[in-house]
What we know:
Elements: H1 2-25, E1 31-37, H2 44-59, E2 64-69, H3 77-86, E3 91-95, H4 96-100, H5 119-128, H6 130-139, E4 142-157, E5 174-175, H7 181-189, E6 195-196, H8 202-208, E7 213-216, H9 218-223, E8 232-234, E9 239-248, H10 249-254, H11 257-290, E10 294-296, H12 300-317, H13 324-334
Parallel strand pairs: 1-2, 1-3, 5-6, 8-10
Antiparallel strand pairs: 3-9, 4-7, 4-8, 4-9
Amino acid sequence: MKQSMQTVRLLICLTLLLAGLAVGGTAAATTIVKVGTLAPANSPWAKGFKKLAADIASDTNGELQLDFQWNASAGDEALMVQKIRTGQLDAAAVTTLGLAQTGVTDVLLFELPGLFTSWAKLDEARAALKDDFDRLFEAKGFTILGWGDLGRLRTMSVGFEIHHPSDMRGKGIPMFPGDPIQPKVFAAIGGITPKQVSLAEILPSLQAGSISVIVAPALAAEQLQWGSRITHVSTETLAFGIGAFIASSARMASLPAQFKEVIARRGREASELLNKTVRAMDDQAYERLKTSKIMYSPTESDRTEWKDIFVKVSTDLRGTVFNPALFDRVVKLADNPLVPKY
């Protein structure tokens, strides 16, 4: 009997010891948030995203980590948004075209050509409408973790200047899937047969000569090597390119409260820092373009021609693509005389 009790006590001690080892030796599970992006891994945007990932990992002792899929390896923006819907991705950094794929087409208001005259006015409008857009995206199942900037959109071409809308007729012009604004602009000008392409197809199309006009920020043109093919650049800012870091609302809701706080706080901080960096780098890239390209500026007469086109497009889009009330608020905040005729 004594031997039996000793055996029982020994088994109990071993059980407690093993339990202690199991508790002490098990690391906390790591939560991975999968993020898609078109940004190349060595781009300025990637540098900001990598810092964001490092800060989040540090704040959570490595328990929450962002896994970025660079350079469109997760697909184009339409596919990335679809992957968020199906749970194949948790988040993505996208341009306004990607944001519009969520069903919130009103976000394209911020990139209406000819509307905003400065970053300051755009910032003011985004801040004033932040809550409205947060609700719109949440209703579609997406959460905005931070707004991002791409740079000033300028017209660039190969072998010629573009002063008048008619100068674009018969030229090789790209069009991205899911953009409701471009077709309206092309239709208003007339004589344009755009080539529907993906982002990856722009450079080879420029090299082959099937595309001869692009509208892009100087920084993006430089990073994607488009600048090596273009010869002429307009000094006019057509619009301000923006985007956002979006995530699945369901995925964010599933995270522990402390993780949600960290990713929300760090997302805001990263956006503010990265936007300042990108704007400065876009200006620097533009200065570099000026040293090797033919720069030209529109006359007041040129601007009037383009304004007439943009007013017509805005009039057509209000009430179809854009909610009229929201449209009117953005136009008012832009403080620009680009007022639709309705």
